[in-house]
Amino acid sequence: MVENLRYKIVENWVCKKVENVMMCKMVENPLCKMVENPRCKTVENRMMCRLGSKAETRATEEEIQRLTQGEASPRGHKTQTGESRIETSQPKVLLTMKAATRIGTWNVRTMFETGKAAQVAREMRRYNIQLLGICESRWNGTGTNLIKDYDSKIPLQRKRRTVIQCYPPTNTADEETKEDFYTKLQAAVDKAPRRDMKILMGDMNAKIGSDNYGKEFIMGTQALGNMNENGELFTDFCAFNDLVIGGSAYQHKNIHKETWISPDGKTKNQIDFITISRKWRRSFLDTRSRRGADVASDHHLVQGTIKVKLKAFKDNCDRPHIKFNTQRLQEKGTRDTFSITLKNRFEVLNNVCQVTPLEEHWNSIKDNWKDTCEEILEKREKQDKEWLSRDTWKLVEERKLLKQQVMSCEEEQKKQELKDRHTILYNEVKKSARRDKRHFYNKLATEAEEAAEKRDVSTMYKITRTLAGKRPPQTKPVKDKEGNAITKEEDQRKRWAELFRELLNRPTLETTPNIPPADSELAVITAPPTRAETIKALKKLKSGKAAGPDGIPPEALKADIKTSADMLLPLLQKIWSERKVPADWKKGHLVKLPKKGDLGQCKNWRGIMLLSVPSKILTRIILERLKDAI
Q1: What is the DSSP letter of 541?
Q2: pLDDT of 573-629, one tens digit each?
Q3: Secondary-structure class of domain 9-56+98-306 per CATH
Q4: pLDDT in the model for residue 625
Q5: Is 611 or 45 the better-scoring residue by pLDDT?
Q6: Is 133 helix (H, G, I), strand (E, B) or coil?
Q7: Given this model, what pLDDT does residue 312 score?
Q8: H-type helices in 454-550, by residue range?
Q9: Res 60 pLDDT > 50
Q10: Domain spans, the chain
Q11: How many other CB atoms sit within 10 Å of the CB of residue 70?
Q12: Strand partners, 13
């Protein structure tokens, strides 16, 4: 972290303590300083993101095909932290007391290669790493790079974390350079809140050895080698800041402690570390190197496991937590299965609903629709197109196998042959990745042209935004009427409630308006709704709209219109005769959408109300009757 051709520090960049945001990301904040230069750049969204998990074991020749398809290995042994293969493969909420969180640091030598980011992301999925810091990315400039969007709500209202990824000078650098680096690093640590869990990690270029005399509180006796000059500086820094060095505290084989291998393959050292505040020492479960991870680097991936006690996240807005995959209804087989299942459920409860109260009648119909959606459609998961082809991933797996053979080979001649083959595969991976990227963009452009010819504006603009790399504007704390930022979530909700209360509620008129009586009454039909009117209203429902508080999408009603009409008609007639509506129909979710301008100002947002979709059938029937009368 010094200003020269090899090391450079960038002021006011921090790996933000995550507070109920969608991604772990870098933000402009004076809490700490991060490293960024052509050889060492602290990762933003691209390297510190929460990815979905695909737990895979070390590949063998028979597993290449399975790994290229993203399937998990059938081997069911336990991991170092006592987790089963099934537990490690399940998606987790980051930093909770119910699940262990895996973090890591990795010197990848460069990220300025086509397909390198995708390979890093694949290794994150393979080892179920939610937070990864990268050294020597060689990206120019500053900002954010997004690999994929994954929803992860992280409840950190009381317990917060500060993560610092750094890359110090090598042991051969001059004393002034090293002193300047640690001075700036100390200033970065000092700016972090005192009560935060502090995590410092990276390629420290330091050997600390196994002798911990006088430093028992911050390191163990399990580290490799002998302490060098950089090791003394690093351990003194950790002792001053009360940081525990994870790589020295856990028993592992030496091959699982080594983090760097020299180009000739003879020298192996442990110079990459993950440290944590001593106050949180019991939350740090394990740290070790992952030799199976391969992105053509001379450093191994270093993984740490953390499990902390946090308050469980609760959604106080009573929003539907499941969005169903309604796209499956476009398949004829799925639509027929959905229709048959819905009919069977309705026939069982048809006679019972005729004599039940209104609220129970509605709840039984709602449960029928939701249970059918959960069984047939299942939960909708966001899937991004993998632009790297299976052939490229197969080359990556072959290269990974070669790396394992190189590390296990003892004959120098055969080892050199394997290294040459590894170099050839490395070049083939780069060429294949470039070819896949060109094919991906050409395919997107073709899809955009076809959407424009069909006048499918929604698809056309979606593809255009993908090609342009534009993303929705990120939210930030809103301001009160005096212009002060509101940081607490509860206060923000009160501010939004106050805003929409002022916008939507009209003040009481001082004088009652004099409205003259009508010359004649409109011939509006007042009889209960009929089956024909219900079917007509169902056909006019628009697809692709968000569900209301009950969580029933419009596609579920339109999948089998006749069955839906038979289910809704008795309910609508009961509502008409009793002049009451279910409680769910009186609720709505007020959603805010951004406009142009400063998003910290409430006036630059607009609100829409998400109502129950079945309730729109009754309103559509009334509207059509009024249109006919007028």
Answers
A1: P
A2: 999 999 999 999 998 888 888 888 888 888 888 888 899 999 999 999 999 999 988
A3: alpha beta
A4: 92
A5: 611
A6: strand
A7: 52
A8: 457-468, 489-504, 531-539
A9: no
A10: 9-56+98-306, 326-382+523-629, 390-468
A11: 15
A12: 28
The residues, ordered by sequence, that sit 6+ positions from 296 with a Cβ below 8 Å of its Cβ are 109, 399, 422, 426, 429
Output b/e per residue, 403-433; b: 16+ Cβ within 10 A. bbebbebeeeeebeebbeebeebbebbbebb
CA dist 346 and 472 (Å) reads 41
CA–CA separation, 185 and 333 (whole Å)? 61
* Residue with token string 């939960």: 379
Residue 250 in tokens: 């856990």
Report pTM. 0.48
Q: What is the pLDDT, as a whole number, of residue 310? A: 53
Check residue 43 and give its pLDDT.
35
Question: How, if at all, do strands 272-277 and 197-203 pair?
Answer: antiparallel
Tell me the three-class secondary structure of 427-469, residue by residue: HHHHHHHHHHHHHHHHHHHHHHHHHHHCCCHHHHHHHHHHHHC
Q: Are 524 and 629 in contact (CB under 8 A)?
A: yes
Q: Which stretches does DSSP call E strand in 210-261?
A: 243-245, 260-261
Does position 469 have pLDDT exceeding 50, yes or no? yes
The per-residue pLDDT for range 133-150, each reduced to its tens digit, is 999 888 776 655 555 433
| Helices and strands: H and E segment counts in the chain | 15, 16
Helices 332-353 and 561-578, interaxial angle, to 10°?
30
**CA nearest to 318, candidates 552, 549, 553, 610:** 549
Of the candidates 170, 110, 169, the residue with the CA atom closest to the CA atom of residue 134: 110
